[in-house]
Design brief:
209 residues; alpha/beta; seven-stranded mixed β-sheet; globular
């Protein structure tokens, strides 16, 4: 679904500059604070990362969203909450390879990534082994990827890619909302929408070793 362009988007984003990272050096300064650093790739409107930050005040969270008009809503949500341990980057993952330091991220969250269902587009999936190679460089020893999706073919593909890339898989569920892990699950807007339509939510925790 194409995102509707937001009125006065650029001006509105300028009001949220305290919550944006627009240069690699700013991210390096956060890394140097030595707090556990967590990364969400594809943060959408920011509901998940905001709640994570509230629950974990001793951690620092970086949210990445490539679509400007979606990132704007996340930035405004962070600003309204006056949360101080989250920053937002408006970018695609590929552009972050020179930004994020090696062995600097404790956990990466991939929530409802684009499934790119056609086989010829498999390399565009954020759980393809080429992307996982980036994540492995960014993650600390025994770092973690937590992946959620309502798309079962993408989930099965991702399990295979994670195993092939050297991750140990645990806490796999094909119905998160009816599992023992639901009590700690933070729902995204997308998650609630598709759950109400009858889709079950798949989730895996992948640990680097």
């Amino acid at each position: 679904m194409r995102t509707r362009k937001k009125k006065n988007g650029q001006q509105r984003m300028e009001l949220c500059t305290d919550y944006l990272i627009t240069a690699p050096q700013a991210l390096r300064e956060i890394e140097e604070e030595r707090k556990p650093l967590h990364l969400e790739i594809g943060c959408g409107k920011g509901t998940f990362i905001l709640e994570m930050a509230k629950r974990n005040p001793d951690c620092f969270f970086i949210a990445v969203e490539r679509v400007f008009d979606v990132a704007l809503l996340a930035a405004e949500k962070l600003k309204a909450a006056e949360i101080n341990n989250v920053r937002l980057i408006v970018s695609s993952v590929e552009k972050l390879t020179e930004w994020i330091g090696e062995e600097s991220i404790e956990c990466i969250y991939l929530n409802f990534s684009d499934p790119w269902p056609k086989t010829r587009h498999a390399k565009r999936r954020l759980t393809h082994r080429d992307y996982l190679a980036f994540y492995k460089k960014w993650l600390i020893a025994e770092g973690t990827i937590i992946f959620k999706t309502d798309n079962r073919p993408l989930f099965d593909f991702s399990l295979d890619e994670l195993k092939a890339s050297g991750f140990a898989l645990k806490d796999i569920t094909y119905d998160l909302h009816n599992s023992v892990w639901e009590k700690d699950n933070i729902h995204t807007e997308y998650e609630d929408t598709f759950s109400k339509k009858g889709f079950t939510i798949n989730r895996v925790v992948a640990k680097l070793f």
